[in-house]
C-alpha cells in the first residue's frame, strides 16, 4: 500500500466512502424529519373528514373536490382527513404521499 499524507490509498478511499454515506444519511434523516413534522402538524390541526367515494391510497390523485389544508411553513405538502386520520398530499401533483392504516 502506498501512503499519501498519512492515509493509505485504500484507507483514504474507505474514508471518502464513509463521508459520502454519512452525508447521504444526513440528507435522508433531514427528509424524514420534515415528513414527520408535516405529519405531526396534520395531527395537531385536525380537519373534518373529506367525502370521497373510496379510501385514499398511496400515489392516488386527490379529486379537486377535496379541500386540502395547508401546512404552515411548508409549501410542498398539504393534508386532509379521511376516516378520522390525516392523509398527506404533494401539493404540486395532488398525489397521496402518506396514508395511515
Describe the protein's topology.
Blueprint: E1 3-4, E2 7-8, H1 9-44, E3 69-71, E4 74-82, E5 85-90, E6 95-99
Antiparallel strand pairs: 1-2, 3-4, 4-5, 5-6
What descriptive keywords fit this protein?
about 100 residues, alpha+beta, four-stranded antiparallel β-sheet, 1 helix, globular
How would you describe what is shown here?
The protein has one helix and six strands; from the N terminus they run ββαββββ. By secondary structure, the protein is of the alpha+beta class. The strands form two sheets. The chain has a four-stranded antiparallel sheet, covered by helices on one side. Mean pLDDT is 78; it is low at 25-30.
* Overall body shape: globular
Overall SS class: alpha+beta
Question: How many helices in DSSP terms?
Answer: 1
The major beta sheet can be summarized as: 4 strands, antiparallel
Number of strands: 6
Strand content: 25-35%
CA-CA gap between termini:
54 Å
Helix content: 25-40%
Question: What's the rounded overall pLDDT mean?
Answer: 78
Poorly predicted residue ranges? 25-30
Summarize the structure.
The chain is of the alpha+beta class and 101 residues long. The chain has one helix at 9-44, and strands at 3-4, 7-8, 69-71, 74-82, 85-90, 95-99.
Amino acid at each position: 500500500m502506498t501512503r499519501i499524507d498519512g492515509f493509505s490509498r485504500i484507507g483514504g478511499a474507505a474514508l471518502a466512502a464513509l463521508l459520502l454515506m454519512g452525508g447521504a444519511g444526513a440528507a435522508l434523516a433531514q427528509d424524514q424529519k420534515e415528513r414527520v413534522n408535516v405529519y405531526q402538524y396534520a395531527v395537531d390541526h385536525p380537519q373534518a373528514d373529506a367525502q370521497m367515494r373510496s379510501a385514499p391510497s398511496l400515489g392516488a390523485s386527490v379529486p379537486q373536490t377535496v379541500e386540502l389544508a395547508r401546512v404552515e411553513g411548508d409549501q410542498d405538502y398539504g393534508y386532509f382527513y379521511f376516516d378520522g386520520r390525516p392523509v398527506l398530499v404533494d401539493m404540486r401533483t395532488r398525489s397521496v404521499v402518506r396514508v395511515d392504516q
